[in-house]
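Hi, here's the filled form for the chain we discussed.

Project: internal
Contact: R.S.
Residues: 322
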Amino acid sequence: MLQQDEPSHTRLRNLVHYAFKRTAVESYEKQIEQLARDLLAPAVKSGSLEFVSEYAVPLPILVISEIVGIPAEDRAQVKAWCDDFSIVALNFYANISDEQLHAGAKAVAAFTDYLQGKVEELRHHPKEDILSALVHAEEDGERLTLDELVANTLLLLNAGNETTTCLLSNGLLALIRNPEEMARLRRDPALIPNAVEELLRYDSPVQFIGRLAATDVNLGGETIREGETVLLALGAAGRDPKRFDAPDELRLDRHPVHHVSFGSGHHICAGLQLARMEGRIAFQTLLETFSDISLSTDKVEYGKNANLRCPKALPLSVTPAA
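And the returned structure, exactly as it came back:
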């Protein structure tokens, strides 16, 4: 549905929203809390944590896989398919190598084959998950075709894991680099929901989105011609001095925080409530579990996906809370 305009977009979005409503995502809160604690348990004993690979990556993919209905034994493979697909899907405005295109196409083909078997099974034996709800979703007599089911399940799995990984990784790095704000959050945990919004503004998980001009548009003295590609920099929008006071400062009590990290309008993120819930639980559990968190390196390297700007690793020294 990301690449669809009206009326196709509304039809697809309504069917996906139907699946979300049927699945009651909010009911997974306790499971997410337990999963977060389980992932941090080894670091309580060792005093060290590689935050990205041991927390920020597994938490979202395990959560979205559980909600969508991907069995535990298939999740590593599905994650690999999602990674190859997202390099192309989120960076197609930029230069994509033939190797990356081939890997993305191969991933989609493999995932399609995988999903076809699941769909046939769920048609006869539905479960309490989003994939089952998508298979049986119906709105005004409309249902998803197999291609639509594959495309939008891939979208949900991608949007539900890598973006949240970036929120957690970028967010923790921002807190470490702003120790007074981390201390503020420890003193007042009630700030965490607002802090998640500020962290989204401060370093947007998705840095840019693309649009095709539907008509000629004059903007800032320049003419954008119909059909031309326009890159909208969400990361820059979050630092707009006309919109935010001291935009380069992290202020966890900033209110209101009207960022555009989830997009806006018809194409606003369908899973934003899940992302907010995961962010709140992940940071709350982290701060409750450890009384001190510090970065064990002076060098932070970023991954190869230019759009999902995220540290490759964040090695930490941690002190368990009393």
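Let me know if anything looks off before we file it.
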